[in-house]
Amino acid sequence: MFNSSQFTPKYFLLTGLPGLETLYPWFVFPFCTMYLVALVGNSLILTVIKKNTSLHQPMYLFLAMLAFAELGVSASTLPIVLGIFLFGASEICFEACLFHMFSIHSFSIMESGVLLAMSVDRFVAIYNPLRYTAILTLPRIAGSAAVLGLKSVMLMFPLPLLLKHLPFCGHNVLSHSYCLHSDLIQLPCGNTRPSSILGLCIVTSTFGLDSLLIVISYMLILHTVLGISSGEGRRKALGTCVSHICAVLVYYVPMISVALVHRFVKQAAPAVRLFLVNVYLLVPPVLNPIIYSVKTKQIRQGLIRLFLQRK
């Protein structure tokens, strides 16, 4: 379709699941169900926390931030995925693709930052429970939310601008169902070094640093818990971290799996890589509301009251 001359593409072609095109109708129901669970589940978490003033505490306010970030990820990916599997609409215009990339990565950065903030919240609650609410005040939590949101936007803002002004040549087919920076950066025939370096710095300073600080936070938490003399006290302290540990694993395990497959398993089928990317973007928003609804008594009771009021 294109020769070797430079051009600015009007659209990109997204890759669904190569070789499985005839099975697309079978993917519609599970994908729609997962998106429905993600959207409804995170919306209910936000509603419960907003309506119950007793939940206007640091732990639940950070959970509301996590639900908001996951709603953003789901809303950014839902139209693209349903368009591919329902209508075979694999074309996306150049500007829309850049905005799609910006949205996915911004909300993912925010989600990672919120998980780090939640680990700090758990450390403060266990290390100094008497001054917990005095340390994590509402203004400080609001400031944290503003910083996380501003950081995610400011870090990602230059990447679409750099890509927009690069010359393209060759093909315009992306290797994923989404517009990801690691994929888009492979297509320009100009100097992509600034964009590549910036992308690497963003990944290192967000996901890499956040995951390291989360590990350090839990090392400090474990050290503090081991210093508690009562066995029942140790169990209760660790019990407050179960939901957050599950959320961290649900977020970072698929991300690490995608990175390892792309880096070390070159012979992996494209469908396997695409499946892992879909898991990374879909599973956390689906599972986290379920985890917190099941494991957190206050959220579970708030959901029950919400449904009883509607009846």
Structure description:
The structure is a single chain. This protein is an all-alpha fold. It is 75% helix and 2% strand. It contains twelve helices and two strands; from the N terminus they run E-H-H-E-H-H-H-H-H-H-H-H-H-H. Strands 1-2 form a two-stranded antiparallel sheet. Helix 3 packs antiparallel against helix 6 and helix 3 runs parallel beside helix 8. The mean pLDDT is 86.
- Secondary-structure element string: EHHEHHHHHHHHHH
Uncertain ranges: none
Percent of sequence in beta strands: under 5%
Shape: globular
Secondary-structure class: mainly alpha
Strand order of the largest sheet: 1-2
Secondary-structure blueprint of this entry?
Elements: E1 11-13, H1 24-51, H2 58-87, E2 91-93, H3 94-127, H4 132-135, H5 138-156, H6 158-164, H7 181-184, H8 193-226, H9 231-239, H10 242-264, H11 270-295, H12 297-310
Antiparallel strand pairs: 1-2
Key phrases:
12 helices; globular; two-stranded antiparallel ribbon; mainly alpha; 311 residues; single chain
Produce a short descriptive summary.
The chain is mainly alpha-helical. It has helices at 24-51, 58-87, 94-127, 132-135, 138-156, 158-164, 181-184, 193-226, 231-239, 242-264, 270-295, 297-310; strands at residues 11-13, 91-93. It is 75% helix and 2% strand.
